[in-house]
Structure formats: structure tokens, C-alpha cells
Specification:
alpha+beta; 5-stranded antiparallel sheet; 19 strands; 23% helix
Length: 418
């Protein structure tokens, strides 16, 4: 899941607005450095931007997808800086030495040396598709009337698609994981759904990817109190929209993380002709999240002592409508009731939806069929990147967006159904 339940060094949310500080020019621009935490390192970026006689200061943590966190000035001159980031209870104090900011980052009683250099390293994403594309795309909207949500998305037709041909392609609806995502499932500089849609279009399969409700170009629909069941209704509306076009032979669903659960929910309700579950849950929510928490604590060198009882009593759980629903959700019945072809896959270094726990359950529950496939991939994380530890802090550092083997397997499996 993308709703991480551990408190990492930085907040994962963006803080709107910036703090004004006195005018200066020598430190204008962006400065970046690596914060060495022992078990991991995090990229930190400080931005100094001139505006109306003042300098605005913000902090980014690209490795965690956090950008534009407001910083307050304690001191700022041409060769020294001291800023406070109240949102994460942190400070950074440094002096300019030989063209570098040499200082100390402090948070919650802990201090770490942090040297920052001018500029931000270019993020390399070699798999990111770039236009012009050799296939046709169409901007569409569809409506979930029950929830008052209008979803906007991109329908990509496969190379060589001819609407007048009697030979119709398969189409796949892409459903994101937890947290409000745009149609590309964009996070930490990666666009996994854009990469998947592009690859499928080049191999004969159409896709529809859409912005989650009340996100980007999609409007309407309650988000604050929404649960996985609500988001499933958005996806179901997308499936109905694709069927209404009468342009496709079969309509399937590919979901990632929470979207993998939604794929099984749609299958059990006979709304999908086939499904692909990327790192989808196979066990009850509270059990999954406790294993997630303990695995991540272990990887960070901390005691892993979380239990279901202590987890369920956490204020974060009891006060969050999405979590309150999810901890009680058991996907067993949905998986057991899936009669259409299903492909469930996961990486063995996924520490958010642990493969040994969830794929084992899916193998046991999924009805036997020669068309079904359950596969675990070595050295892949929750985003299906080749990785070292599997921790989310690696996602942004890895150039690969998604394993080519996974892309190839999805295409081969779907095309085998034709």
C-alpha cells in the first residue's frame, strides 16, 4: 500500500504555502545533499526563491515524494543559513564553505551532518515514454453516479487499431493503489501506469488509466470518508464505460496494491473478464499492515514488535475512515469467488505487501484454472523495481520504473487469453 504506517524522517504530504524571509541573493536556487541515517540515506533539497523582494524557502524530500514543505527563517545571510521546518520538527544550520553548505540537520533530538551542493541532480527515468507515440490516444470522462464522481482519463488504443475492423482488441482498466493518484500513478518521479499503458499499446492491448476521484482532472466524490469499496465503484463505472463503447473484445482490470484488491472485488462481482493484481492483498487488512510495519522496522534496524491488537488501537487507525474499513476487510471471499482468469504477481522484496504472506494466501484461495497464474519475482519491490532493500526510500533513487520482465509477462499472459 502507499499509505505507509511508519513515521519516516519526513512527512509524505506537501504543505501549501511558503514562509517569507529577508532578501538575499547569494544562496538563491536549489541546494541538495544526502542525509546519512546509517540504515538508509535520504536526499534533501533546500530551495531559495526570490519573490517580491523576499526569499521563499522550501524543503523537498524527493526519495519520499515530499515537495514544497514550508521552512521558516531563523538566520539567513550571504554565507550562512539557519532554517526551521516546523512540519517535521527539524532544523538545518550551515555555513558556505568552498562553494558548499556545510552544516547539521537536527530532528527530534537527533543530529546528522549534511553537506549540500548547488543544484539538483537530474532524475533519470529511461523507461518514461516520450511523444510522438505510434498509437492513438483519446481523452475521456466517465461517471460514477452513485458517488457523484466524474473521472477523467486517457484511453490508449493499440498500434494499428482500426475502429472499422471486426477484430477487436482487449482493453485493461488501470486502478491505482491507496492515496489519491493521477492517471499515471505518478510518485517519486516515476509514472508506472504511463509506462504500462505505453508498453501494452505497443503490444496489441488497449488501456484506460484515470485520475482518482477529486484528483487532477477528475472532479466530485467524497475523499475524506471514502473507503476501498467507494473506489471500487469508481473502477466499476470505468468498466461499464469501456463496455458501452463496444470497441473491445474483452474488458479486464489491472490494479496495483489497493487496486489489486479492487481487481478481485470486481472479478467476484463478475464485472471483469480477466484481472491482473500487482502486489494486491491476500489477507485481512490488519494482518497485512502489521506484517508491513514489522518488516519495515526490521529493515531500518529497529525492534519489530507490532501486534494486531496494538496496531488496531493506534489513533491513526481509529480516526481514519479509510483505515477503519481496510483493517476489517478480508479479501478471501473475493479471491475465492473469482471465476475469470487472474494473474497475481509480487516481488520478494516488497515490504508493503509482503509476497510470502499475500501470494501464499492468493494461491490457496484462487480457484484452480489453467488460465490463472501466481508468480513471485526475485529482487523486486512494491513498485516492481529491481532494488536493494525494498524500502520506499529507494523508490525515487532507482532509475527503473518497472521491471521489463513484469511488463513482458503481463502482455504474454493477456495475449494468451485471446
Amino acid at each position: 500500500m502507499k499509505k505507509l504506517l511508519l513515521l519516516f524522517l519526513f512527512a509524505l504530504a506537501t504543505l501549501a504555502g511558503h514562509s517569507q524571509v529577508q532578501s538575499t541573493t547569494a544562496l538563491l536556487g536549489s541546494w541538495s545533499g544526502k542525509l546519512d541515517l546509517g540504515v538508509m540515506s535520504l536526499t534533501v533539497v533546500l530551495n531559495f526563491e526570490q519573490a517580491d523582494g523576499y526569499v521563499l524557502v522550501t524543503l523537498d524530500s524527493p526519495d519520499q515524494g515530499a515537495k514544497g514543505i514550508g521552512a521558516f527563517k531563523e538566520y539567513l545571510s550571504d554565507d550562512s543559513v539557519a532554517v526551521k521546518v516546523e512540519m517535521i520538527n527539524a532544523t538545518y544550520r550551515a555555513k558556505l564553505k568552498e562553494g558548499k553548505l556545510d552544516g547539521t540537520f537536527s530532528q527530534n533530538g537527533m543530529s546528522f551532518p549534511l553537506v549540500m551542493t548547488k543544484g539538483v541532480a537530474e532524475v533519470k527515468r529511461p523507461q518514461q515514454p516520450k511523444p510522438p507515440f505510434p498509437y492513438t490516444t483519446e481523452e475521456v470522462t466517465f461517471r460514477n453516479e452513485a458517488d457523484g464522481a466524474t473521472l477523467a482519463g486517457t484511453l490508449s488504443y493499440p498500434i494499428g487499431y482500426d475502429p472499422k475492423s471486426k477484430k477487436k482488441p482487449f482493453v485493461v482498466l488501470l486502478v491505482t493503489g491507496s492515496g489519491q493518484q493521477n492517471r499515471d500513478e505518478e510518485l517519486m518521479g516515476h509514472s508506472p501506469f504511463l509506462v504500462i499503458a505505453d508498453y501494452l499499446a505497443r503490444h496489441g492491448i488497449a488501456t484506460l488509466r484515470y485520475d482518482d476521484r477529486a484528483t487532477a482532472a477528475s472532479v466530485g466524490g467524497d475523499v475524506a470518508n471514502a473507503t476501498t469499496e467507494d473506489f471500487m465503484r469508481d473502477a466499476a463505472a470505468g468498466m461499464e464505460f469501456l463496455r458501452s463503447k463496444k470497441a473491445f473484445k474483452k474488458v479486464g482490470c489491472l490494479g496495483h496494491s489497493e487496486g489489486g484488491a479492487i481487481a478481485f472485488m470486481l472479478a467476484s462481482r463478475k464485472k471483469a473478464d480477466f484481472i491482473v493484481s500487482l502486489a494486491g492483498p491476500g489477507v485481512k487488512g490488519d494482518t497485512l499492515l502489521v506484517v508491513q510495519s514489522n518488516r519495515m522496522l526490521e529493515l531500518m534496524g529497529q525492534p519489530a514488535q507490532m501486534t494486531v491488537e496494538t496496531f488496531r488501537n493506534e489513533p491513526t487507525v481509529t480516526q481514519n475512515p479509510w483505515l477503519k474499513w481496510f483493517v476489517d476487510y478480508d479479501p478471501s471471499d473475493d479471491i475465492r469467488s473469482t471465476r475469470c482468469p487472474a494473474f497475481a504477481l509480487n516481488g520478494d522484496r516488497d515490504c508493503q505487501v509482503v509476497a510470502s504472506q499475500n501470494l501464499t494466501a492468493i494461491r490457496r484461495l484462487l480457484p484452480r484454472s489453467k488460465k490463472n497464474l501466481v508468480k513471485e519475482y526475485p529482487s523486486l519491490n512494491h513498485l516492481f523495481q529491481h532494488c536493494t532493500t525494498g524500502l520506499p526510500t529507494e523508490y525515487g533513487e532507482i532509475e527503473e520504473t518497472i521491471s521489463p520482465e513484469v511488463l513482458q509477462d503481463i502482455v504474454e499472459w493477456v495475449n494468451h487469453l485471446k
